[in-house]
Design goal:
There is one protein chain. By secondary structure, the chain is mainly beta. The chain has one domain (19-193): Jelly Rolls. It is built from 1 helix and 15 strands; from the N terminus they run αβββββββββββββββ. The strands form 2 sheets. Strands 1, 3, 4, 6, 11, 12, 13 and 15 form an 8-stranded antiparallel sheet that branches. It has a 7-stranded antiparallel sheet with strand order 2-5-14-7-8-9-10, with no helix packed on it. Strand 3 and strand 4 (47-54) form a beta hairpin. It starts with a helix and ends with a strand. The relative contact order is 0.27. Residues 1-16 have low confidence and may be disordered.
Length: 194
Amino acid sequence: MIKKLTLTLTLFSSLALADTLNYNFEKSSLQNWSKNGKWEILAEKENKILSLSQHSRDYFNLCYTKDVAFTDGSISVKFRANSGHMDQGGGLMWRVQDNDNYYVARFNPLEDNFRFYIVHEGMRSELDSATIKLSSGWHTMKIVQKGTHFEGYLDDKKLLSHEDKQLQKSGGVGVWTKADALTSFDDLHISTDK
């Protein structure tokens, strides 16, 4: 009985220490989001999705909100690579300070790889990489951040694990592509640890 009570209180305490935000883009607006490129909420069948329909003049296509102060927790999103000759796919960005400082997890189907990057003062540096081939269509990407340690998952399979101390401040959350990669996103879930 005491073990069950302790487990229940532990689970309750853990849930009480987390905030969860969901963006399914059904009723969401991009009014308060920072964007590079032409990002739109489009109807697809009976669903609405976030899509990059025209890449920016800058090298990176960004769409993020700073309404979320993310330091630790988890972020997941569904994504689909639609097209791109130089680049395809994309992924999540977090602890976003501004357009030039943030972490990125991205999958590129042209290269069959999943990678962590840091963009610091506008310069992108690779932090970790895994080789993986995915079928075309929708997939789920997730990152889990605890202090200086973060992990990357594709379709619930952990593929990346890295330690980095360069961006420790809380920041915004969003999605990211590079060059001419036109990609769609849906069901952005953010769980922040307090």
